[in-house]
Specification:
By secondary structure, this protein is mainly α. Helices cover 51% and strands 4% of the residues.
Length: 431
């Protein structure tokens, strides 16, 4: 083999940036395993026709990692068709022991991603009936480690309110716009930074945000709060050239990126006394707020741009308060199966009319609410949670009475709501 200025053969002792274990280049793989390199690169060419560049780059990294193992541990192997189950079983612990960035072990998600990509490689080339495919797919679904699926980390209502107030107090207009838009629309950061200049549209009498085709290959429209529309228009009038292709670029005209967005959010978070906030937490927060206030899962899926309800159930966490309310609503009905119905006091109008008279104060337009008065209800103070709600000091006695009533009934959420409204009056934040 002729020598060149740059080494072609793979050197497993060569270090990579960040302390990660080295991965062979395609030139190095082709120098020692030409048939393996040819099959893998042909596969990458095929999937590049249907997958996004980021997905293809991930597959490229996973296949080169596997080829690196083949270079250093299976010198007699000549082609992909020679790979059998024993090769995979030896590769798995080798992969798990490799250091990642900073020298730390690879994360479980990274290991699962690389093994999943490799398994799909074998499945596809077998389905495509390629000559270099193994006689049997040497990997199974059980080869992929099971990953934890923790609930999304949404901000609770008081923290979200503090973040928004802190952002509104910041002098940089783009920071204020960024936090407001992400917190009120649930956009992904990649969607936010790529919004085109014509994304703000009017449908009927209301403003909407047109989110173009993106991660899930579909576009959608989001209703916009009038306050957000005003913020966007004021920022564009002050800092954006009317001919700029983006809706919300930086003040110097350059496009925003996720790192800048994260820094802006955390600047507001620090001012609010909060810890580190990932931009996706604002997406989780909107979904959680919506589901806790009665928005349907189907509507949340459409708002967030999910392609399946399974994604919505993962991202839009049902908070403990909602679970508790529904649990107690069902508990009353379950108790009726085990207990004799309570005897109502005698009444001249009969037992049924006595019950209706007792619940008359909670009569609805087309029925009666039978929720026990001591249980909290998200809708009992629904107007006070609306973004259009305003109050003044003239209503302080009424607000105080509502707070006292909530405390007396043990309605924690309702009590917190009126406590916040009273605090806002004391701090001069309510107009």
């Amino acid at each position: 083999m002729s020598t060149t200025a740059l080494p072609v053969r793979f050197d497993p002792g060569q270090d990579q940036r960040g302390g990660a274990a080295p991965v062979a280049t395609w030139d190095q793989i082709a120098a020692e395993l030409p048939m393996v390199a040819a099959t893998m690169q042909a596969y990458l060419t095929q999937i590049a026709c249907v997958l996004r560049p980021g997905s293809v780059n991930g597959a490229d990294q996973s296949l080169r990692c596997f080829a690196t193992y083949l270079l250093t541990h299976t010198p007699a192997l000549a082609c992909v068709a020679d790979i059998d189950r024993s090769t995979i079983e030896a590769y798995k612990p080798w992969l798990a022991a490799r250091p990642g960035r900073g020298g730390a072990p690879l994360g479980l998600a990274t290991i699962a991603g690389r093994l999943g990509t490799l398994r799909m490689f074998f499945i596809r080339i077998a389905e495509w009936d390629w000559d270099d495919a193994p006689a049997r797919v040497p990997m199974f679904s059980g080869d992929l480690p099971r990953q934890d699926r923790p609930l999304p980390k949404a901000l609770d209502d008081p923290s979200a309110a503090r973040l928004l107030r802190a952002a509104q107090a910041q002098p940089r207009m783009l920071l204020r716009v960024t936090v407001e838009v992400l917190l009120r629309t649930g956009l992904r950061v990649s969607e936010y930074t790529a919004l085109p200049a014509d994304a703000l549209v009017h449908i009927g009498a209301g403003p909407w945000l047109h989110v173009p085709v993106g991660k899930l290959h579909q576009d959608r429209y989001l209703p916009l709060h009038p306050h957000v529309v005003t913020l966007i228009q004021d920022y564009r009038a002050t800092h954006v050239d009317p001919t700029h292709p983006l809706l919300l670029p930086r003040e110097n005209g350059r496009a925003l990126d996720r790192h800048t967005v994260t820094r802006m959010i955390n600047k507001a978070g620090a001012a609010a006394g909060l810890g580190h906030i990932h931009p996706h937490q604002l997406r989780h927060t909107l979904a959680t707020q919506a589901i806790n206030r009665g928005m349907s899962l189907e509507a949340i899926a459409a708002m967030l741009g999910h392609s399946s309800m399974d994604m919505t159930l993962r991202y839009a966490r049902i908070a403990n308060r909602t679970v508790a309310e529904e649990y107690f609503a069902v508990t009353d009905k379950v108790d009726a199966l085990y207990n004799d119905p309570a005897q109502l006091p005698a009444d001249a109008l009969g037992p049924n009319m006595a019950r209706l008279r007792r619940e008359h104060s909670r009569m609805l337009g087309n029925g009666y609410c039978t929720r026990p008065p001591e249980l909290d209800c998200a809708f009992e103070s629904i107007c006070e949670t609306c973004t259009f709600f305003q109050t003044t000091i003239a209503f302080r006695p009424t607000l105080q009475a509502q707070q006292d009533d909530a405390h007396a009934k043990g309605q924690t959420h309702r009590a917190q709501l009126f406590t916040q409204l009273l605090n806002n009056l004391e701090n001069g934040e309510a107009s």
